[in-house]
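Hey,

Quick one before I head out. I ran the complex with iron/sulfur cluster overnight. Inputs first:
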Amino acid sequence: MKYHLVVLGCQMNMSDSERVKSVIESMGFTHTDNEDEASLLGVLSCSVRQKPIDKVYNRIHVWNRQKNKRNIITFVSGCVLPDDREKFLKLFDFVFPMSELGEFPQMLREYGVASPLSLSQDRESTHNVEDVLSEVETKSKKQSLLNPLTKYSASKPVLPNNKDIFQLWNVKPQYQSEFEAYVPIQNGCDKFCSFCAVPYTRGREVSRPSAEIIDEVVQLMKNGYKSITLLGQNVNSYGLDRDEELSFAELLTEIGKAGDSLQNPSWVYFTSPHPRDMSRDVIEAIAKYPVLAKQIHLPLQSGDDKVLIKMNRKHNLDRYRESVADIRELIPQATLFTDIIVGFTGETEEQFMNTLQCFDEFQYNMAYIAMYSPRPGAQSYRWEDDIPQATKKDRLKRLSEKLEEISAAYNHRLLGKELQVLIRSTERKTGFLSGHTEGKLVTRIKSKDQSLIGKFVKVKITESADLSIAGELVTVLKDKRIPVSAD
Ligand code: SF4
């Protein structure tokens, strides 16, 4: 029996999908890219915009039409707003929060679904499920499992219960790459930015125990992973929700020490931090330990204090400025990335110009710039979206041009230098490979050698463009992979 999984949205959903696949495959299902041959069909939903939600409805209507012709079971999890959850309950066989993933095999059994393993009645194999869910607390919650409405009511919105998220983290992931991995360190968000629905879909912040995170990161380093990203909605408020836990800076320090003892085989990144919580000790840790990649993504969203207040961002420009000054002082080689929203409700031309000036001041290497669109479930959804689309487009264009100008000047200064690059894939243009530097600058290399994918190489930079660089292969760097110990 086969399963098909549609994963929408961000890196967090991609990371969650690695654990979803482990659980489903522990029941004996095998993955297929062809949904027509799957008997178990699932979606990890994203509520950030209407488009992915429309995709969920589109798929489930197609699948439900097929139910007349063949036996299929459907489920949806991931980021789901209370309103959509009510509607999904009428359309999908299973609707459950990601925190209850560990109970999915039990849900199927209680629903009367025979998994491939239960059909084969292979008792030994059945233990695989228990292995994967080794530390998962299995409880009988039939009522709540089959009727999540008992927990989430659309008429009286409540934040999703996030306390069982530990079950998800206890599942051993099936990493999708052999050299890049995401490690969840936290779930949910306490910041309640007015444009964002995440606190309503993922609930309040919950930090994963540091011992588990460090274990997972160390194993990935030992297994030869070159790029490891610590994931959370607000990574640098890590630990604040727990009485006795490391701070984010302390967590980075422990990972830094582990990197030192393993001869720094990887680049360890994190995303996303919040400017309010970007304390100097976090930046000191990144500066101190070679394994912590010298690339920082610090979302600004707007360069105007009044807009930041309206966005409920809980940081102002001066606070942001202090962090950038710390980064430039302690890690001068670090690249700086950001997120920006243009055309937020009420944004004046003058306020937009303040954001534009921030680009000159902070000299970003990359910025993910979005035109504001109201997100269902977010506080600002109720406000008038009063900036004309043409104005938003114009601001996006001017900001993108500014970014390209700054990035092009930075990239030009790299000409002639030799940089370490992680090769990630082939380029669309045949005869070229694509990768990135430690600072995540996109790098093109003239080579057809696909065996280099997943390896560190040294590249001499010979060309620079607005948002990328290109160069010639100098040498393949020694693979510092260390054999996995027996423990
Ligand atoms: S910090 Fe703001 S934008 Fe980021 S997840 Fe939390 S509410 Fe959303």
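The pocket of iron/sulfur cluster is lined by residues 189, 191-193, 196, 198-199, 233-234, 274 (CB under 6 Å).

Talk tomorrow,
K.
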